[in-house]
Structure to design on (533 residues):
């Protein structure tokens, strides 16, 4: 990857690679590439793609990594950092199970390329509790039985914390509207809303 | 996802030069639609140019015109004090779109560039003239409940999915675009295209161009306005029909009316004939009904979406009724 800030420095290692015969052959003939992918040659082909250095903080811990451009932040967290609390539901930004905070803002991690998050500070469900002490939102979800199977719960809780912090938890209707990006197939919605409302009305900074 | 090269720049000129050199490259901003489409194999750019660090995140009022940088997030725009005060119709349209998580990431420029949610466009095993020109349209004679009733063609009946764009169309916004030859400015309503015989083109942005900002001129439409979105669930669903309505009422008469619809055409659908009709008249129910009737001239259903022929005028009437009733 090249960090390019002027027109002169546009020639990158990537461009150099592109000039090599194999890469040129593949890049100029998309059909060949597709066939290669079909025949599982894709994996070897992928090695030609540069892994990009990536520095970020996850739950206050700094990481220095190298990732392929196509790796999403969700896959990076789960597969490389083994932080499997963040769930993969739909993987298309429709369900909210993968919700995390990037620099304090709630985001679907399945639609964010990891390499776009250079220098960012990520918080996942693993980063909410203080040691053995649950975050107030986690405690409220348990108290109100805000889940059944639990698969959507990490995303629900990350979204709920942001919802309160944003100031969008002032009524049940407002909570429902601003939590609509988190789908629960078990239908625990009424209890989730109760949990969020209690944390909001508790008035503590969370 | 098929792999790709990745470059990042914080300079507009460099971004333009990079895209100019590489016809198979694409810009990425929020990525909420692009990454989705790449995962599904609908599109496969060979290179992504990350433009998130370009200096296009300002919202400022200059000579009574609101300048909105292309990289302003949908949530930042909806929460902006100037937007809330002067263009609350845009705020409502933004809040009606997507989810809180997506609005935090999706940008103004990216929202304009998002592709249709037509199921045939997304399903790479199906024919779609937009995805693969010449392959046919699966939606005509197929599942077309979500599809267009205005401005359709024999090659495509997809709709543009944005809510924000419906608001901007109603507000007479303009788009400032940068290209290799400099900047140009076009009316927002001319940014998106009808499908015609080239449904692969969603808009009039040329290859190698970049959206810099959107501009909204001052108006008096911040009192009587409403954005009404009808969808299959209360929140977080694409519009079946949506209506942006704004009225400037002086001495009991409509001095200025703005109406635009979403979910009904390949582009945000401005209801100019209805606006002209309403001007100078009182905002009575009968006049709202007549305006809705005028809007529906030339509407055409495709079977499963025939219900929109009734839903659309009813939504116009309801949006106007709510708008005029605001004190």
């Amino acid at each position: 990857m090249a960090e390019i800030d002027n027109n002169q420095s546009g020639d990158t290692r990537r461009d150099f690679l592109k000039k090599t015969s194999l890469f040129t052959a593949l890049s100029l003939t998309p059909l060949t590439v597709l066939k290669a992918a079909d025949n599982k040659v894709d994996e070897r082909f992928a090695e030609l793609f540069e892994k990009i250095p990536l520095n970020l903080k996850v739950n206050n811990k700094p990481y220095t990594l190298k990732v392929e451009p196509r790796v999403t932040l969700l896959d990076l967290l789960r597969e490389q950092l083994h932080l499997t609390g963040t769930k993969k539901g739909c993987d298309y930004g429709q369900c909210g199970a993968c919700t995390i905070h990037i620099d304090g803002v709630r985001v679907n991690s399945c639609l964010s390329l990891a390499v776009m998050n250079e220098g960012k500070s990520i918080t996942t469900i693993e980063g909410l509790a203080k040691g053995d002490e649950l975050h107030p939102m986690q405690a409220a979800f348990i108290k109100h039985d805000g889940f059944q199977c639990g698969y959507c719960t990490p995303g629900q809780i990350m979204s709920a914390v942001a919802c309160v912090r944003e100031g969008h938890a002032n009524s049940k209707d407002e909570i429902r509207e601003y939590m609509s990006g988190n789908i629960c197939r078990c239908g625990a919605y009424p209890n989730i809303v109760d949990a969020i409302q209690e944390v909001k009305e508790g008035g503590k900074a969370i | 996802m098929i792999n790709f090269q990745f470059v990042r720049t914080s300079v507009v000129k460099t971004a333009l030069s990079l895209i100019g050199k590489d016809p198979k490259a694409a810009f990425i901003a929020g990525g909420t639609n692009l990454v989705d489409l790449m995962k599904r194999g609908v599109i496969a750019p060979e290179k992504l140019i990350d433009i998130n660090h370009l200096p296009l995140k300002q919202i400022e009022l200059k000579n009574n015109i609101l300048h909105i940088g292309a990289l302003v997030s949908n949530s930042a725009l909806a929460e902006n004090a100037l937007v809330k005060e002067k263009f609350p119709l845009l705020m409502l349209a933004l809040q009606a779109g997507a989810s809180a998580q997506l609005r935090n990431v999706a940008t103004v420029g990216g929202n304009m560039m998002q592709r249709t949610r037509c199921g045939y466009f997304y399903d790479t095993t199906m024919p779609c003239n937009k995805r693969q020109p010449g392959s046919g349209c699966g939606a005509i004679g197929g599942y077309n409940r979500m599809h267009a009733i205005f401005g359709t063609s024999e090659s495509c009946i997809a709709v543009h999915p944005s809510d924000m764009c419906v608001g901007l169309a109603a507000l007479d916004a303009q788009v400032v675009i940068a290209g290799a030859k400099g900047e140009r400015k076009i009316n927002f309503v001319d940014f998106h295209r009808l499908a015609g015989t080239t449904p692969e083109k969603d808009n009039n942005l040329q290859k190698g161009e970049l959206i810099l900002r959107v501009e909204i001129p001052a108006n008096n439409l911040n009192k009587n306005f409403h954005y009404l979105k009808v969808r299959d669930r209360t929140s977080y669903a694409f519009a079946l029909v949506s209506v942006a309505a704004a009225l400037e009422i002086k001495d009991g008469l409509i001095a200025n009316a703005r109406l635009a619809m979403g979910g009904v055409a390949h582009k945000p659908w401005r209801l100019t004939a209805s606006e002209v009709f309403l001007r100078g008249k009182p905002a009575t129910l009968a006049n709202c009904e007549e305006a809705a009737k005028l809007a529906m001239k030339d509407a055409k259903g495709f079977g499963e979406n025939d219900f929109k022929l009734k839903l659309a005028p009813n939504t116009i009437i309801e949006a106007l009724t709510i708008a005029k009733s605001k004190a």
Summary: The longest helix of chain B spans residues 308-325.
